[in-house]
Amino acid sequence: MIRKLVSVGILSTAMLASFAHAEDALVISTWGGSFRDLIDENIGKEFTRQTGVPVKYITGGTIDRLNKAKLATTPESDITFTTSHIGWLYANGNLFEKLDTAKLPNYSHLVDRAKISPYHIGSWAYVYTIGYRPDLVPKSIKFDSWNDLWNPALKGKLSAPDFDPSHIINVAALLSGGDAATWQKGEEKLKALKPNFKAFYTNDANSQQLIATGETPVQILLSMNAYYMIGQGVPIKVVMPKEGAVLGVDTMGIMKGTTKADLAYKFMNIALSSEVQSKIVAYKKASPVVDNAKVSAEDAALPGVFTTKEQWDKQAIVIDDKLRAEKTAEWRKWFTENIMN
């Protein structure tokens, strides 16, 4: 009996210690899967090494996490990772703290395109561009321009994301003499692309499956996904069209009401360090968002990995994040009704 009581006492002490440990953790809201691993492996572990503070993750979809944050009376996380345009919805909803950049020494190295708002800043960048299987499309097609997607030889070979059609909507507008603000100029051109679509993928895993099996040998795809698949042996060619590729920046912001603001700033500053940014590029083939990251010549040569100001200025199709946040629902509704149906 004494032995059992002692065991229970030890167990209770361990459980209390574990609970206290979890309570002291810095909580990060992010996507699951490889993106959660990206943050943990390259930022979270370094943060814990430097501070002794553990990191806890809550994961979910971009919009699901936004909706939960809107309904919460106290923030579920201390830092939230989200896309640059959805970050504006957090900011407009009074969910992010205004950042004190004096508490982020590495902010001085942040590239201009990663200075999204006074409330959220870039953590890494990427592009949505054309990726294709050279073994499964006519050899005459090289995709030097976005216009090449409209080639009739690609009928039933193309896929794009169903959750965010802003990339192709804005490309169609650009090719029609418009831009994000005048996106309707590209409506007819985009409707003309409809025969070439075979499928619309719902997430990264679905995208990878469609191109790996060859069901859709041409995709408007996330560059980081393409490089992951290439690493898995799928023969994908990623291109940089002459018009550029659609820039995406994933961002981080500090949740309003957090009790761990000082730790949150420490975490974000570590994320912006040249050492961590260099690791993120090597790990995920993303673009670094600081100007002092060290990038291998091999990675720097990859389409969509920006390491110079000229690349940021000339190869990125930039959709205004605030406008994009306002138009996302409208664009998705139009795309669903006119292209997907």
Furnish the topology, listing elements before pairings.
Elements: H1 2-23, E1 26-30, H2 33-51, E2 55-59, H3 62-71, E3 79-83, H4 84-92, E4 121-132, E5 158-161, H5 166-175, H6 187-192, E6 197-201, H7 204-213, E7 218-222, H8 223-231, E8 237-238, E9 245-254, H9 261-271, H10 274-284, H11 297-300, H12 309-314, E10 316-317, H13 321-340
Parallel strand pairs: 1-2, 1-3, 5-6, 5-7, 9-10
Antiparallel strand pairs: 3-9, 4-7, 4-8, 4-9
Helix pairs in contact: 2-9, 2-10, 4-13
InterPro entries: SBP
Organism: Bordetella ansorpii
Pfam family, one: SBP_bac_8
Q: What's the quick description here?
A:
With 341 residues, this protein is α/β, with parallel strands linked by helices.
What does this protein structure show overall?
The protein is an alpha/beta fold. The protein folds into two domains: 26-125 and 248-317, Periplasmic binding protein-like II (D-Maltodextrin-Binding Protein, domain 2); 126-247 and 321-340, Periplasmic binding protein-like II (D-Maltodextrin-Binding Protein, domain 2). It is 43% helix and 16% strand. It is built from 13 helices and ten strands. It has helices at residues 2-23, 33-51, 62-71, 84-92, 166-175, 187-192, 204-213, 223-231, 261-271, 274-284, 297-300, 309-314, 321-340, and strands at residues 26-30, 55-59, 79-83, 121-132, 158-161, 197-201, 218-222, 237-238, 245-254, 316-317. Strands 1, 2, 3, 4, 5, 6, 7, 8, 9 and 10 form a ten-stranded mixed beta sheet that branches. Helix 2 crosses helix 9, helix 2 runs antiparallel to helix 10 (274-284) and helix 4 crosses helix 13 (321-340). The longest helix has 22 residues, at 2-23. The protein is globular and about 60 Å long. The protein starts with a helix and ends with a helix. The relative contact order is 0.17. Residues 1-22 have low confidence and may be disordered. Keywords: Signal. It comes from Bordetella ansorpii. This is ABC transporter substrate-binding protein. InterPro entries: SBP. Residues 1-22 form the signal peptide.
